[in-house]
Design brief:
The protein is an alpha/beta fold and 250 residues long. The chain has helices spanning 75-80, 120-126, 145-150, 188-201, 234-237, and strands spanning 8-19, 24-30, 40-44, 54-57, 60-61, 65-71, 88-95, 108-113, 132-138, 154-159, 166-167, 181-185, 205-208, 224-227, 230-233, 240-242. Bound molecules: flavin-adenine dinucleotide (FAD) and FE2/S2 (inorganic) cluster (FES).
């Protein structure tokens, strides 16, 4: 195992809080710490409760700002959604190992479920123009798709209730044979299916894993999961892993 990642703590000024759907927001803050696609920040917008900061991926970053795209799930993200322009938020990061960019060549398939779309804007904007195709699944109303389209990325949508795109799961409309390499982020069962389809087709796949986190820097071992080469920590060894290395149904 590697030692804890170097981390930066920054009280970042909120520049904008945009509500994209009923429960999905994009928070833009002034921050110089940047990061690479697939890395994340431990975010804290409260004093005492909840006890722990929450991991949120980099949605976009440039020299002076960072954007986070998040879905309100519980207390932490609910408090994040209460921030307004001019407030401050504590960020620790950038943390973890993001996508292995040197292995993303040729036709790149990006398969996402729900808020797993969050890190993909930054990834797609870093890839060569027109090399990426996004296949995004949502329970209902899609979000964050327009921003991807503005990059010139091809986007296919599946919704479980059929309100937009194809009715069903993103895995129903995903054909790994159309790609040289695939990246995925979303609920674990969805990523397990993407990994299985890629393995059957012989297409390499990078998966950004979800886990409950406490420290975010590799110290507490609270986010470990089994791989073909032993237990690994999502926060410090990942969150992005070779999907073939992950033991999905442990
Ligand atoms: C590396 C990483 C990057 C992430 N990036 C984003 C992002 O960009 N945008 C975003 O919206 N979310 C992201 N998440 C998930 C996010 O961290 C959780 O949704 C958040 O911590 C929930 O906190 P809460 O206090 O609002 O909810 P809690 O009260 O802590 O939990 C609410 C519900 O969500 C479940 N839950 C909480 N955390 C997780 C988790 N990590 N995996 C699965 N279920 C969970 C709980 O079991 C509970 O049912 C990321 C997670 C990881 C590990
Ligand atoms: S959250 Fe502590 S080791 Fe990963």
């Amino acid at each position: 195992m590697t030692s804890p990642s170097p981390a930066y703590i920054e009280e970042a000024l909120v520049l904008a809080q945009d509500r994209l759907t009923n429960d999905v927001y994009r928070l833009t803050v002034e921050a110089t710490t940047g990061g690479s696609p697939g890395q994340f920040y431990m975010v804290r917008a409260w004093d005492r409760e909840p006890l722990l900061a929450r991991p949120i991926s980099i949605h976009d970053a440039d020299e002076g700002t960072i954007s986070l795209l998040y879905q309100v799930r519980g207390r932490g993200t609910e408090l994040l959604a209460r921030l307004h322009k001019g407030d401050t938020v504590a960020l620790m990061g950038p943390l973890g190992n993001g996508f292995t960019m040197e292995n993303l060549h040729g036709r790149v398939g990006i398969v996402t479920g729900g808020i797993g779309i969050a890190p993909m804007f930054y990834l797609a904007s870093t890839l060569p123009a027109r090399s990426a195709t996004v296949i995004a699944g949502f329970k209902s109303t899609p979000y964050a798709v327009a921003a991807l389209l503005s990059l010139g990325v091809e986007v296919y949508v599946a919704t479980e209730d059929g309100c937009e795109g194809t009715r069903g799961f993103c895995t129903d409309i995903f054909d790994p044979a159309a790609f040289d390499v695939v990246v995925t982020c979303g609920p674990t069962p969805m990523m397990a299916r993407v990994a299985q389809l890629c393995a059957q087709a012989g297409v390499p796949c990078q998966a950004s894993l979800e886990a409950h986190m406490a420290c975010g820097i590799g110290a507490c071992l609270g986010c470990t999961f089994p791989t073909t080469s032993g237990y690994k920590r999502v926060c410090a060894d990942g969150p992005v892993f070779d999907a073939a290395e992950v033991i999905w149904h442990a």
